[in-house]
Structures are given as structure tokens and as C-alpha cells.
Amino acid sequence: MVRKPLNKLLLILLVVFLLPMFIFTVYQISTLNENEKVITEIYDKQLEAILFSVNQYSQDLVDAWARELSEAQLDTVNTTQRIKDFMLQNESVQYIFWSDSTLKDNRLWTLEKSPDSGVEPILQDTLKGRKEALARLKSYQKEGYIRKEPLGRIQADGLLSNNSGLIFLLETGGRYQVCMLVLNPNLFITRTLAPKIQSVAQ
Prior knowledge:
Elements: H1 3-74, H2 79-89, E1 93-100, E2 106-110, H3 119-128, H4 131-142, E3 149-153, E4 164-172, E5 175-183, H5 185-201
Helix pairs in contact: 1-2, 1-5
């Protein structure tokens, strides 16, 4: 008979002690989950800000490249020297390929002492396969907007398989020239983007 009240008493004491601990534990877990959500949201926003900043930087850089090459094209006396200086300052640019609207009158620049003879035909064929993109660029150019069209990887394998590129139009006296920049993505990321990412991340 004594055992029953004792058991009840023990049970009541157990509930009295354990219930607050249980409530406190549940509260802590829910608070942790809320904190994790807040931290995740902050992290996502910071990451978005970094990506936006890097994308904006890349866009501004390519715009500056287009302006510089447009000026080099207009300076007919010093075009080659200006392009050489441009490539020395921007080592991720491996080749610069210019062509007229017929894609027959081509000029190729590189800092390589003995470039592979197969490069120019590949770049010419790449442009021929982008007629829709070139038509879009012309329509934008007529509206006074110089748009840059990314090419992605130039070839799946073989020569230039590790390169990607972009194209835009240069205008001289109402005539258009196509300008293709062939980039080494690894150099562009490590030499150009990495310092910017580090400065933004700080």
C-alpha cells in the first residue's frame, strides 16, 4: 500500500523535473533551426551579392575590351601595335579574329610566335555557324547597342578545345566587322576574376 503513493510521488517528481527540461530542449532545437535559417539566408544573400558583383565586373571588363579594340580599329596606322599591347595586358585573350560581313576578309592576331595554321579556318567556320547570332548583333548595333555574344567552348576536341570565346561587332563608316576574342578560361578565372572575387569576398 505504501508503494503506490511512493510510485505516484516519484512519477510526479519525475514529470516536474523532466517536463521543463523537455520544453527547454524543444525550445533550444527550434531556436537552433531558426538561427540556421537566418544564417543560411544571410549566406545566400552574400553569395548572390558576390556573384552579381563578379558578373558586373566581367561585363564592364568586356565592354572596356570592346571599346579599346574599336579604337584600335579606327587607328589604322597603329592597329597592330595597339592590339599587341592589348593582348600583353590581357593574357587570357589568346587570339583576336576580325572578319568582314562576308566572313572572307579575315585578320588574326596572337602573341604566339608560330601559331597553328589550323586556327584561322576553325575560327572562320565557327563564325559561319553563328549566322543567327551575327544577325542579332547587327540588329542591336543598328539600335546603337554593342552586344557581346558568348560562344562557349569553340571545339569539343582537338585544336582550341580548351578555349572559349565571344563575338561582337565593330563599325567603321557604316560597315561592320566581326570581332572574335578567343579566351583561355583558366587564365581568365585565375588572373582576372580571382583577385576580384577575393576583394569582394573580404
